[in-house]
């Protein structure tokens, strides 16, 4: 897959019928291969970044009238010669042109191969290449912004600087090894310690940012749970502002789970309405209750709703005790406030982090949304913070942190060779993020998740 000698071709736009389809050719022969099927000006004699109207023909058989865009190496996405052919978006035409280009010497590109070439040719580092995939997959303003920031090199340049500094120390310590008998210290231990503390702090912040970064990229799994008739379906509708879930008077009717996406300030909360959590009497309901508990364990946020008119403090405490799961934050919502007098409202059972609403009358739904949002976004987002969103980066950062902790701990008593080994490990994991260190397996793993044509 890492062979870049040949010229690759693929459809860059979605397959299926569209107004136009864009076929991309990249590689040393991109322009000469295009010229072989081209009727119009000689493409091999044109300047970079120019557009040309012409026709694609297989011998005498005309296939389509198209526009070709030329990008001459290294001024292209892949840093190779690139021709983009915009043809009419018929699946038949697209297939015919691609087949023809393959007949004339191009090879069908594999998934992610254009972006892989951009990486191999130094146009992007690895985390930027991954950001391309994230940008293509982004489905909200926040996820698009984070991907864009990563694409622009935000945190990889920061890591690169730190890594370069660490490399210097590594080489000084290596040098000490060469003079082992003479007991010299080229690498100033205090400076090394300071650098490692700095790196560890920055890495620690990046690791912490994953929770939010992941919420932005993948959304926040949010479960709505409570006893039957507490108003869960009504709340779901109020949050979504639409009549979606089925609202009924018969306890236990929302037996299965329903999933909807609520976007608050650019973050997607995936809302899962669940079967009621009362002690189930029949087996179907029991399955529902079990599923509710499973759903809660898999989520990051639980909206626990209770009927403020019907529920005692004891029942509330019992429910909350049952529903508590490690790693899941709970927002407690007292519903049906519209049925209560002021006096009753003042005497409500109370717990931490509680909000009083009326789902049916749409009271305090905005306040609730605000609380939901801030359960994921603890501090105000400025739009400039560095967030990591990729589990691969998280793991590499954690391993870097472990290796650096070993360096710090060992600095007093271990010999230079062990110190050098741990620093090398840290360098290795840091390098894996930006692609300074790669293996074919790693590349295969990352780029195979891309679509063909990317
Ligand atoms: P679920 O079983 O928890 O999903 O509860 P539903 O959403 O089906 O609601 C049960 C009943 O309570 C329905 O008759 C709703 O109209 C009613 N209800 C829900 N929320 C409110 C509210 O805020 N105020 C009042 N008065 N009734 C509500």
UniProtKB/TrEMBL annotation:
InterPro entries linked to this entry: G_TrmE, GTP-bd, GTP-bd_TrmE_N, GTPase_MnmE, MnmE_dom2, MnmE_helical, P-loop_NTPase, Small_GTP-bd
GO molecular function, one term: GTP binding
Residues that, per the record, bind GTP: 229-234, 248-254, 273-276, 335-338
GO CC list: cytosol
Annotated keywords: Cytoplasm, GTP-binding, Hydrolase, Magnesium, Metal-binding, Nucleotide-binding, Potassium, tRNA processing
Residue stretches making up the TrmE-type G domain: 219-377
Signal sequence annotation: none
Subcellular locations according to the entry: Cytoplasm
EC number of this enzyme: 3.6.-.-
Binding site for Mg(2+): 233, 254
NCBIfam families on file: mnmE_trmE_thdF (TIGR00450), PRK05291.1-3 (NF003661), small_GTP (TIGR00231)
Family of this protein: Belongs to the TRAFAC class TrmE-Era-EngA-EngB-Septin-like GTPase superfamily. TrmE GTPase family.
Function: Exhibits a very high intrinsic GTPase hydrolysis rate. Involved in the addition of a carboxymethylaminomethyl (cmnm) group at the wobble position (U34) of certain tRNAs, forming tRNA-cmnm(5)s(2)U34.
Protein name: tRNA modification GTPase MnmE
């Amino acid at each position: 897959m890492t062979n870049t000698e040949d010229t690759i071709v693929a459809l860059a736009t979605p397959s299926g019928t569209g107004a136009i389809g864009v076929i991309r050719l990249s590689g040393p022969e991109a322009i000469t291969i295009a010229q072989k099927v081209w009727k119009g000006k000689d493409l091999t004699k044109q300047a970079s970044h120019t557009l040309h109207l012409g026709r694609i023909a297989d011998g005498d058989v005309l296939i389509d009238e198209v526009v070709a865009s030329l990008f001459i190496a290294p001024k292209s996405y892949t840093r190779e010669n690139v021709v983009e052919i915009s043809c009419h978006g018929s699946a038949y035409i697209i297939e015919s042109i691609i087949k023809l280009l393959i007949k004339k010497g191009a090879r069908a590109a594999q998934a992610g191969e254009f972006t892989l070439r951009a990486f191999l040719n130094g146009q992007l580092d690895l985390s930027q290449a991954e950001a391309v995939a994230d940008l293509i997959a982004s489905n909200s303003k926040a996820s698009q912004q984070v991907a864009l920031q990563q694409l622009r090199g935000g945190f990889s340049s920061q890591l690169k600087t730190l890594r370069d500094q660490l490399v210097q120390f590594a080489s000084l310590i290596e040098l000490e090894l060469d003079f082992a008998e003479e007991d010299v210290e080229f690498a100033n231990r205090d400076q090394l310690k300071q650098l490692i503390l700095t790196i560890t702090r920055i890495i620690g912040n990046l690791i912490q940012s994953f929770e939010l970064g992941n919420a932005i990229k993948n959304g926040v799994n949010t479960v709505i749970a409570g006893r039957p008739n507490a108003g869960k379906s009504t709340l779901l509708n109020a949050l979504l502002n639409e009549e979606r879930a089925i609202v009924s008077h018969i306890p236990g009717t929302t037996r299965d789970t329903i999933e909807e996406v609520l976007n608050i300030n650019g973050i997607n909360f995936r809302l899962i309405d669940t079967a009621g959590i009362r002690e189930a009497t029949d087996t179907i309901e029991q399955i529902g209750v079990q599923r509710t508990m499973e759903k809660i364990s898999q989520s990051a946020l639980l909206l626990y709703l209770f009927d403020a008119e019907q529920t005692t403090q004891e029942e509330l405490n019992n429910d909350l005790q049952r529903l508590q799961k490690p790693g899941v934050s709970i927002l407690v919502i007292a519903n049906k406030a519209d049925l209560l007098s002021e006096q009753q409202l003042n005497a409500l059972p109370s717990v931490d982090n509680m909000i009083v609403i009326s789902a049916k009358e749409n009271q305090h739904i905005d306040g609730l949304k605000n609380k939901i949002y801030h359960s994921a976004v603890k501090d105000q987002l400025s739009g400039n913070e560095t967030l990591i969103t990729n589990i691969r980066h998280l793991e590499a950062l954690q391993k870097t942190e472990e290796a650096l902790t070993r360096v710090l701990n060992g600095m007093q008593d271990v010999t230079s060779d062990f110190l050098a080994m741990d620093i090398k490990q840290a360098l290795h994991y840091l390098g894996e993020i930006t692609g300074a260190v790669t293996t074919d397996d790693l590349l295969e793993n990352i780029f195979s998740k891309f679509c063909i044509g990317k």
